[in-house]
Design the sequence.
């Protein structure tokens, strides 16, 4: 095994990991690293290498192919397995992955986005009315989180009366911060219990929603339904919150680009793609495991090894993007990797893009004088192995 490095985890790195990744791309584009949790991985940082890894069938998504000591580190799949949430789209390979993905893909197809867009617009309008009289507000707590909770729960078919705790549980599952008010295991068990009850309710009284579709489909087992809903809750909840938070923060830190967007609101679609590239809401891909030795660049990764793609690094690779560290809302041919690549490309990518356009566009129209209320260096960032975004985003609205 090559000599390894402990991946930085301090506040400075979490706030701005890009200089570190630039150094890796130059000197060690495929690097064996360890995390302070005890996990380890081969970290892939260059764009072309990342595309290869994300689409190569020689890399499995099943953590059962991971080394025993990696699994014993306690942050892989064991907790999910004990909660009945272990087998879902991010831990399955074809053909099982293909079968499950096809069951609910229609809910994320462009033809359904019109109806979902109306839900998003109504939620945005309501939240903006609530902010109208405020001088300052935390946009994560008062805008991004409640918006995404409404949208994802609407799609899944979670009744309004049961939505209150889902955000707190999702926070606990995704965050690696040990100071939360409940452990990850407790949150997983709570999610499993409530989702299980919803599945039984939908079998008796189905609706036009994801849980009902899954509960009445012939293909998935009950455990597969449970795990699928868990995945959509957690993955859909956190990443879109961070798309909004990271995107608004980038605009406020680049007033020239913000003014450019206000002057050309028709360019919002292109702008959201650049915001996704510039500061991806998912810093790393989810885990992959080599089934055979795989050559990535000049490095051969042995069989049976965990691999992570640093999506944030790949999106800032100067070999793929001109002036890659600059925010350019007019950037063309923006083939970023924030939603992944290949068979595991994010199922909810079109929905996330739509929500980002509506939420960010409405916010900058409603509050043309909006500005950060704190020094950006003082912002705290979420501690997580996958998602990336500020914990709070205090702004002056007027």
Sequence:
């Amino acid at each position: 095994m090559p000599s390894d490095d402990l991946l930085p985890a301090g506040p400075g790195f979490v706030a701005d990991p890009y200089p570190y990744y630039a150094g890796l791309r130059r000197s060690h584009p495929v690097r064996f690293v360890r995390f302070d949790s005890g996990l380890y991985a081969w970290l892939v940082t260059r764009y072309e290498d990342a595309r290869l890894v994300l689409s190569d069938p020689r890399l499995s998504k099943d953590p059962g192919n991971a080394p025993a000591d990696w699994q014993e580190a306690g942050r892989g799949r064991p907790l999910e397995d004990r909660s009945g949430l272990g087998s879902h789209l991010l831990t399955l390979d074809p053909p099982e992955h293909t079968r499950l993905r096809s069951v609910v893909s229609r809910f994320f197809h462009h033809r359904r986005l019109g109806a979902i867009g109306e839900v998003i617009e109504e939620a945005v309008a309501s939240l903006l009315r609530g902010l109208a009289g405020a001088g300052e507000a935390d946009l994560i707590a008062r805008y991004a989180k409640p918006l995404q909770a409404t949208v994802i729960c609407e799609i899944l078919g979670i009744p309004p009366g049961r939505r209150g705790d889902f955000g707190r549980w999702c926070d606990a599952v995704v965050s690696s911060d040990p100071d939360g008010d409940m452990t990850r295991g407790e949150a997983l068990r709570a999610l499993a219990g409530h989702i299980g009850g919803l599945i039984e309710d939908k079998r008796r009284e189905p609706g036009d929603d994801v849980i009902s579709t899954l509960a009445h489909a012939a293909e998935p087992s009950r455990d597969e339904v449970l795990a699928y809903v868990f995945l959509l809750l957690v993955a859909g909840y956190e990443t879109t919150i961070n798309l909004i938070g990271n995107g608004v923060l980038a605009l406020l830190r680049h007033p020239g680009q913000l003014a450019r967007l206000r002057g050309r609101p028709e360019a919002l679609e292109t702008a959201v793609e650049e915001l996704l590239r510039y500061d991806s809401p998912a810093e790393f891909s989810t885990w992959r495991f080599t089934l055979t030795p795989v050559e990535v660049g000049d490095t051969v990764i042995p069989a049976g090894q965990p691999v992570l793609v640093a999506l944030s690094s790949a999106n800032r690779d100067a070999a793929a993007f001109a002036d890659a560290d600059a925010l350019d809302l007019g950037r063309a041919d923006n083939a970023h990797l924030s939603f992944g690549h290949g068979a595991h490309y994010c199922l909810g990518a079109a929905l996330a893009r739509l929500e980002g356009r509506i939420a960010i566009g409405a916010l900058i129209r409603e509050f043309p004088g909006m500005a950060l209320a704190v020094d950006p260096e003082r912002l705290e960032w979420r501690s997580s192995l996958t998602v990336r975004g500020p914990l709070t985003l205090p702004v002056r609205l007027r």
Observations:
- Confidence is low (pLDDT under 50) at residues 75-83.
- The chain has 16 helices and eleven strands.
- The first helix runs from residue 11 to 15.
